[in-house]
Write a structure and sequence with these properties.
The complex is a heterotrimer. By secondary structure, chain A is mainly alpha-helical. Chain A contains 3 helices and no strands. The chains are: A mainly alpha, B mainly alpha, C mainly alpha.
């Protein structure tokens, strides 16, 4: 049984869905962040798959895009975790259900 | 030239004793004809694993790693070191291992059992993987991948996680302190380390360790002469990441009992201890390959087995680790952080700038090897000047009113600087 | 892509990645979830090697495992009284429904499309990637470095307390 483009894309799709589920359903802000990281990884996998399989005159573009995604993911993780620590200092919790001051 | 097969390394004869990979290649090629397809893929790593352990890791760890280190440190501290077990105390490591195996491997009741059990395994595995990309000869390399240097950096970031798992799972505050310290240290020192190696990559124009050795061989100069600053930064950063003694704040026994190893005992502890030496040897082999010319030795490698040359250079590098361990006192946690961010990082950036400029001059001017020797002299001068100038700029004096490390606050051991300055102390 | 080695590697990596991603969502302990996340990252790096993107695979391990996962561990430890609980919100059921529907749509589309693929791997090295990054894509590359600096400064500012700033003003 040969491994083709569909196999990699299906793995990427399932991983993305799992990441979405984690990001939407977790109560802890750091858990939500982990879901986002899973989704970004799924996207990276899909991009590399296209870079490897698709017919194009410049196949390196997919890998270039992945470099940018990784950069942005690193920046996003740093800022999000600083936010989590900052919120924790003020409210003593990082539970996203309890951060509802605007709801009065 | 009476024995041509001993001289011509590229002849591919399996009986060329200088290159042990010929033998393994012969075994694998013949096995491929006999065995069903695919089995040989399993056989190859097995042979490589056994061979690398037999040639390098096992004797190095047992004889030089443990015994040599204790003996040399003993002499540095005006004592004899191990001298009871066997001739000259040579059997001491074996006696230690037997003692460790007899001990009970305790697990605290409140510990996270699964993570605590997995942590030593996660710690050991990357050490074996690291040796895959170290070239031991012209063709004697387990995996000659084009991004060998990055592979080494990537794999060497894994043991930190194992140390963290060990520290967190034990559910002991000293373990947790050790884990936090090692993680913070590694993040800080990874930055100048990568910047220093970037200079080397920039100059040689390759990420493959084997090509780097060939570059050294072609231009007849070691990179330690060409980039002394990068070598110094690599050495300090790697000894900080490996928790060697001047920088071993993660397991400082006078501050936090044994750091992340506090709750480990028996052979689980032994695995951490042994693999600490394994990582030091891997880092030494990597440093010897990148900076000291690997298996090449100004033409001597035509007559002498290259794998003996690289092992010799590795142990030379490892001696530097032992030397610093035997002579320097331990630094404080905040001092190490300050050193990483305020000293190492700017110096590494300066090194990168100088190297990039020289590379441009060398390539655009189409210069020859003599220019490289000129660069070497210039770079040694620049290295000394940058180190002296930057330490002058930073004040070059002990901190009179040191800030407490931030993490102390989480431990409730925080003393406000304002109060300390007024003189009422703690 | 055929051959026994590639096929076996694909299925092993797929199982590793998806099972550990399942561990991220199922484990009750936040630290265990982070450890599962690290295994997922390593599995993805394995996929990159399989897709002959060596450089990206190594960058993935260095950045995700060496930096981002460690940052997440730090954040978990710096928020101690928030609990290590990895529980779910009230909206968990609709969230999972949405995720399952999305996965179903994706898989249907992937199976339905007639992919026009290369039979051989394009020969890409780290050299090509470097040329593309510093040639065609040099402007996004520079902007990414500005973004990283901004994120660095911003996260330092966010994580500081007024207390610490007062100390630094004195020191």
């Amino acid at each position: 049984m040969n491994v083709g483009i569909e196999h990699f894309l299906v793995v990427g799709a399932i991983l993305f869905a799992m990441g979405l589920g984690v990001a939407l359903s977790k109560r802890n802000a750091i858990g939500v962040l982990m879901g986002v990281e899973l989704m970004l990884n799924a996207v990276n996998l899909t991009l590399i798959t296209f870079s490897r399989f698709s017919v194009s005159d410049r196949p390196v573009s997919g890998q270039t895009f992945v470099v940018f995604v990784i950069t942005v993911a690193a920046a996003e993780a740093a800022v999000a975790l600083a936010l989590a620590v900052s919120v924790y200092r003020n409210r003593d919790t990082v539970d996203v259900d309890r951060l509802d001051l605007l709801k009065s | 030239m009476a024995l041509p097969f001993l001289v011509d390394g590229a002849s591919g004869n399996w009986y060329d004793i200088r290159d042990l990979s010929n033998i393994s290649r012969l075994i694998l090629e013949n096995a491929d004809k006999v065995l069903p397809q695919g089995i040989v893929y399993v056989l190859a790593p097995l042979i490589g694993f056994v061979a690398s352990f037999l040639i390098f890791v096992l004797p190095s760890q047992l004889i030089v790693g443990v015994y040599g280190e204790r003996k040399i440190i003993g002499r540095m501290q005006s004592r004899y070191g191990p001298n009871r077990v066997g001739p000259f105390g040579l059997l001491q490591p074996i006696a230690d291992a037997i003692k460790l195996m007899q001990k009970e491997a305790l697990t605290p009741t409140s510990a996270d059992r699964a993570v605590m059990y997995i942590a030593p395994i996660v710690f050991v595995a990357p050490c074996v993987l690291l040796f895959a990309v170290i070239p031991f000869g012209p063709r004697m390399i387990l995996a000659n991948i084009p991004v060998g240097l990055l592979y080494f950096l990537a794999i060497s970031s894994l043991p930190v996680l194992a140390a963290f798992m060990a520290g967190w799972s034990a559910n002991n505050k000293y373990s947790l302190f050790g884990a936090m310290r090692i993680v913070a240290m590694t993040i800080s020192y990874e930055v100048p380390l990568v910047l220093a190696l970037l200079g080397v990559v920039l100059f040689t124009g390759t990420l493959s360790l084997q090509d780097m050795v060939f570059w050294t061989k072609e231009h007849h100069i070691w990179l330690v002469l060409l980039q002394p600053l990068a070598f110094v930064i690599y050495f300090i950063c790697v000894s900080a990441e490996l928790n060697r003694t001047p920088t071993d704040i993660a397991e400082a026994e006078s501050e936090i009992v044994a750091g992340y190893l506090t709750e480990y005992s028996g052979m689980k502890w032994g695995l951490f201890y042994g693999m600490d030496i394994g990582y030091a040897l891997a880092a030494a082999a990597f440093g010897a390959t990148v900076f000291l010319g690997g298996w090449s030795m100004f033409g001597l490698d035509r007559w002498f087995p290259p794998w003996l040359i690289i092992i010799g250079k590795t142990h030379l590098f490892y001696f530097l680790f032992i030397w610093t361990r035997g002579t320097l006192p331990r630094l404080r946690s905040d001092q190490l952080m300050t050193f990483a961010w305020k000293f190492m990082l700017p110096v590494a950036l300066a090194n990168l700038f100088v190297v990039a400029t020289e590379r441009i001059i060398w390539v655009k001017g189409d210069l020859n090897d003599v220019a490289l020797y000129g660069f070497a002299v210039l770079n040694i001068a620049i290295a000394a000047a940058v180190i002296v100038a930057w330490s002058r700029f930073l004040g070059y004096r002990p901190e009179r009113n040191p800030l407490k490390p931030r993490m102390m606050k989480e431990a409730r051991g925080y003393v406000p600087v304002v109060a300390a300055a007024k003189g009422d102390g703690r | 892509m055929d051959g026994f080695g590639v096929t076996a590697a694909f299925w092993v990596l797929a199982a590793l990645t998806l099972v550990s991603a399942g561990g991220v969502m199922a484990s009750r302990n936040l630290l265990h979830a982070v450890l599962f996340l690290i295994v997922t990252f390593i599995g993805i790096a394995g996929f990159f090697v399989l897709l002959s993107a060596d450089f990206i695979a190594m960058a993935q391990v260095i950045i995700y495992v060496g930096a981002i996962a460690v940052l997440v561990l730090f954040a978990v430890l710096l928020t101690p009284r928030a609990g290590r609980d990895n529980g779910e919100t009230k909206m968990a059921a609709p969230a999972w429904l949405l995720a399952v529907c999305l996965a179903a749509v994706f898989i249907f589309v992937i199976q339905d499309t007639n992919w026009h693929v290369l039979s051989t791997s394009p020969d890409l090295s780290a050299f090509d990637l470097g040329e593309a990054l510093l040639g065609t894509w040099v402007l996004p590359f520079e902007i990414a470095s500005v973004l990283l600096t901004a994120a660095l400064v911003g996260s330092i500012m966010l994580a500081r307390t007024p207390q610490e700033e007062a100390e630094d003003a004195l020191a």
